[in-house]
Write a structure and sequence with these properties.
The protein has 5 helices and 4 strands, in the order E-E-E-H-E-H-H-H-H. The chain is α+β, with helices and mostly antiparallel strands. The chain has one domain: Ribonuclease H-like superfamily/Ribonuclease H (Nucleotidyltransferase, domain 5, 2-Layer Sandwich), CATH 3.30.420.10.
Length: about 170
């Protein structure tokens, strides 16, 4: 069995998913997200994200941990775009370190390793097109995993898609 912890990281509403693969079949075993109050400062919001992620990981790390931990890469155009995402990343990174969980580098053939796939790469791998909308991504996640539950928001289905992209790219599921 392969277990992957995946994050869709943002300051406003990060999402998390745990996906397990047995005999080439993926299934979602846990989903979570947290909605933030945009009026709070970035430092407090990053601390809240760290607390949320710590509780999620503690509940799902189990005896054997995770075989991989992944997230989307992000490259904003301005510091105003980058700072909130990097603050949220930092909160989740600190939560992961409490459990000795390391983010798995994303490696493209012939390129340097990155922190994760781009959002368009996730959509291309999981939904078949890099410009897939949120509903198409959620539908693709359901097809890959057989998930029949409710996604509370797009952040949960996006986190699952990030995990699936990792698993598909690395041949764990076909």
């Amino acid at each position: 069995m392969t277990r992957v912890l995946a994050f869709d990281i943002s300051m406003t509403s990060p999402g998390a998913a745990v996906i397990e693969v047995k005999a080439g079949k993926a299934r979602i075993t846990a989903l979570s997200s947290i909605r933030q109050d945009a009026k709070r400062d970035h430092g407090l919001r990053a601390d809240i994200i760290e607390s949320w992620a710590t509780l999620f990981i503690a509940e799902h790390v189990g005896k054997h941990g995770f075989d991989a931990c992944t997230r989307e890469d992000f490259n904003g155009r301005t510091s105003a775009q980058n700072y909130p995402v990097f603050a949220a990343w930092s909160g989740i990174q600190r939560a992961c370190e409490k459990f000795d969980v390391q983010f798995t580098p994303w490696v493209e053939p012939g390129k340097r390793a990155t922190l994760g796939p781009t959002p368009s790469k996730v959509k291309l791998i999981v939904a078949g097109k890099g410009s897939a909308d949120k509903d198409e991504v959620a539908d693709a996640v359901r097809r890959w995993t057989g998930y029949a539950g409710t996604f509370e928001n797009d952040d949960q289905s996006d986190a699952a898609a990030v995990g699936l992209a990792y698993l598909i790219r690395n041949g764990a599921i076909k």
